[in-house]
Amino acid sequence: QVQLVESGGGLVQAGGSLRLSCAASGRTFSNYGMGWFRQAPGKDRDFVAAIDYSGKITYYADNVKGRFTISRDNAKNTVYLQMNSLKPEDTAVYYCARGKVLVGLTTPSGYAYWGQGTQVTVSS
User: Fold this and answer.
1) Which residue positions in the chain have pLDDT lower than 50?
2) Are the C-beta atoms of 104 and 52 separated by less than 8 Å?
3) How many CB atoms lie within 10 A of CB 119?
4) Which of 18, 37, 59, 66 has its CA 20 to 30 A from that of 88?
5) How far is it, in rounded angstroms, from Cα 108 to Cα 94?
6) Hey, which residues does 93 pair with through a beta bridge?
7) pLDDT digits (tens, 9 = 90+) for 71-94
8) What is the Cα–Cα distance from 93 to 123, expressed in whole angstroms?
9) Nearest residue to 39 (alpha-carbon basis) of 65, 6, 79
10) DSSP label at residue 101
């Protein structure tokens, strides 16, 4: 069983930064792509960023490109999401997920395991 535990969420003013972490259990972390999604109240779970198993290929949603950076440390079984220039519309619960394949995909159906989520609130 794979467990994913997110941390690093919180309250920040617009223009500020946060760094989310997601620690994964298990010995096969480096074999799979990882992703970050977010869900605001009353809305669907939206893709934010994804990274392939090696950390060399990344994908971003258009509305976070240039502001967010996804990275991973396979030695620590951890994936990160550095969020800069935060906006009130970035407010949501952020989830990390472990993919079913080597690459990181942009749809929730491409992921087999999910964390419990961490709240990010950006005040104006």
Assistant:
1) none
2) yes
3) 12
4) 59
5) 13
6) 39, 119
7) 999 999 999 999 999 999 999 999
8) 15
9) 6
10) S
Pairing of strands 34-39, 92-99: antiparallel
The CB-side HSE value for 59 (13 A sphere, CA atoms) comes to 16
> Rounded to whole angstroms, how far apart are CA atoms 7 and 15?
20
Look up residue 109 and give its two tokens.
Answer: 């159906």
Residues 61-83 as b/e (b if ≥16 CB within 10 A, e otherwise) read: beebeeebbbebeeeebbbbbeb
As given in the structure block, the two tokens for residue 113 are 């395991």
Closest C-alpha among 90, 34, 28 to residue 59: 34
Q: What pLDDT score does 28 carry?
A: 86
SS3 30: helix
Report whether 119 contacts 8 (CB < 8 A).
Answer: no
Alpha helices in 18-124 (DSSP H): none
Nearest alpha-carbon partner for 4 in 90, 72, 62, 64:
72
| Two structure tokens written together for 29 | 């972390």
Closest CA to 66 of 58, 74, 56: 58
Query: And the tokens for 111?
Result: 């992921």
